Amino acid sequence: MTRVLRSTFFLFLFTLQHISAQTTGALKEKIEQIISAKKAVVGVSIVDGNEKEILSINGDRHFPLQSVFKFHIALAVLSQIDQGKFSLEQKIKIEKKDLLPNLYSPIRDKYPNGTTLQLSEILEYTVSQSDNVGCDLLLRLLGGPHVVDEYFRKINIKDVSIKITEEVQQANWDLQFENWTTPKAANEVLVKFYHNKKKLLSQKSHDFIWETMKGTKTGKARLKGELPGNTIVAHKTGSSGASKAGITEAVNDIGVVFLPNGQKYFISVFVSKSTENSDTNEKIISDISKAAWDYFMNRVK
């Protein structure tokens, strides 16, 4: 390569990097504008489809998982299914005593006297409809929250803490902080299990969880709220509600967003310690999601 060609090549690379940095900087500025006037602590992590971190805001801060941990629980169950300990077709008997009245549960609503469901159905209820009874049934099947906690440590994802069940969490406001993660770690789980490079799941289990995540029925005003109506988002939400003092500790959504050109990106947003109302908390997430969407759409033009 001649000196002129070499200089031109390096100038081209520098220009590309400079444009990319400017664009990423504009995205971060936009997101900071969204959250600056809000009375809340917001954590964000965005990673592109090539596993490159685009930005992080409060990325290493601990946020309560709330129902986001049902995604993690499902992954631990699927891992044990792949080891032959359980099967998706396995029948699980659900007795009336399991249908606790103080927990949100579409299973209980549909089967108030109990029923028998396949494990795959309980996983779908738990992840896509955020069923709390289904969640605790899965935790009992595994042997308790500590089994999920240990599973993520085993696969070297450190900033995930899963210590208590939904029954315990819902009964004591302060205990929700026992189940926590960081925005960066939330995205790390999404990336590792979506790309599945280390074969953490079989192909059958991989396809099952991502199709289930695409069918999530909760939090439609969050990551999907301002995106085009036909956008596919495989995601999991979590919510704490507000305390008696009017503080909301968790309005969360983490997921994979699929672009029209076949590319994708990973985004995790956590809203905590908020004195804003419910609609505002959800709009924080939808506004951040739209800013990320615009960034990636402009990048592929």
SSE arrangement:
Elements: H1 3-36, E1 41-48, E2 53-57, E3 63-64, H2 69-82, E4 91-94, H3 106-110, E5 115-118, H4 119-128, H5 132-142, H6 145-154, E6 160-161, H7 166-171, E7 180-181, H8 183-195, H9 203-214, E8 232-239, E9 251-258, E10 264-272, H10 278-299
Antiparallel strand pairs: 1-2, 1-10, 3-7, 4-5, 6-7, 8-9, 9-10
Helix pairs in contact: 1-10, 2-5, 2-6, 2-9, 4-5
Note down, in words, how this protein is organized:
The protein has 301 residues and is an alpha+beta fold. It has one domain (38-299): Beta-lactamase, CATH 3.40.710.10. It is built from ten helices and ten strands. The chain has helices spanning 3-36, 69-82, 106-110, 119-128, 132-142, 145-154, 166-171, 183-195, 203-214, 278-299, and strands at 41-48, 53-57, 63-64, 91-94, 115-118, 160-161, 180-181, 232-239, 251-258, 264-272. Strands 2-1-10-9-8 form a five-stranded antiparallel β-sheet, with helices on both faces. A hairpin with a 5-residue loop joins strand 9 and strand 10. Helix 4 packs across helix 5. The protein is globular, with a radius of gyration of 20 Å.
CATH topology tier name? Beta-lactamase
Q: Biggest sheet: strands, sense, closure?
A: 5 strands, antiparallel
Mean pLDDT: 93
Uncertain segments of ≥5 residues (pLDDT<50)? Answer: 9-19
**Tally of alpha and pi helices:** 10
Q: Describe the oligomeric state of these chains in a short phrase.
A: single chain
CATH architecture field: 3-Layer(aba) Sandwich
Explain briefly what this protein structure is:
This protein has 301 residues and is α+β, with helices and mostly antiparallel strands.
